[in-house]
UniProtKB/TrEMBL annotation:
Belongs to the free Met sulfoxide reductase family. One of its GO terms (molecular function) is L-methionine-(R)-S-oxide reductase activity. Residues 10-160 form the GAF domain. This is GAF domain-containing protein. It comes from the Bacteria. GO terms for cellular component: cytosol. Signal peptide: none annotated. InterPro entries: FRMsr_CS, GAF, GAF-like_dom_sf, Phosphatase_reg/MetRdx. SUPFAM superfamilies: GAF domain-like. It comes from Paenibacillus yonginensis.
Length: 162
């Protein structure tokens, strides 16, 4: 049985440990919802100064709320709208230092001040996005971007999304 290890060390060490833990969490589990639920819980456990960690899944028309940790969130997001919809449409990671300065930002939680969104693409097909929010302005940097892109890559290479 998998057991999460308490994060220790500097941020880079914590993130490397989290990638190893993610592999252990999803190994052999075919259900994508269960894997995304555990993945969001792991992110919430290891990342400092965040108030939301979760997934929006693409249903062929728009992004729909998936497994997450945090306060209730917006249920549907059109492609091209807000940070999540823009990241999904462009298929690029977006780091936003101040969400209040992002044109078209969708405010699901008024405590959020910064955000990072990583698109999830498998075999050229948009699956959804990983969305992490923080109450701190400027919370996310290149280290977070590299870690979260590697995190998503593990999911994409290990989980079969239908």
């Amino acid at each position: 049985m998998f057991q999460a290890a308490t994060p220790t060390g500097d941020r880079q060490q914590v993130y490397e440990s989290a990638l190893t833990q993610l592999k252990g969490l999803i190994e052999g589990e075919p259900n994508s919802v269960a894997n995304l639920a555990n993945a969001s819980a792991l992110l919430n456990f290891v990342m400092q100064d965040i108030n939301w960690a979760g997934f929006y899944l693409y249903d062929g028309k728009e992004l729909v709320l998936g497994p997450f940790q945090g306060l209730p969130a917006c249920i549907r997001i059109p492609l091209g709208r807000g940070v999540c919809g823009t990241s999904a449409q462009q298929r690029e990671t977006i780091v936003v230092e101040d969400v209040h300065a992002f044109a078209g930002h969708i405010a699901c939680d008024s405590a959020t001040n910064s955000e990072i969104v990583v698109p999830i693409v498998q075999d050229g097909r948009l699956i959804g996005v990983l969305d992490i929010d923080s109450p701190l302005r400027g919370r996310f940097d290149e280290t977070d971007k590299t870690f979260l892109e590697a995190f998503v890559e593990i999911l994409v290479s290990s989980v079969k999304f239908s």
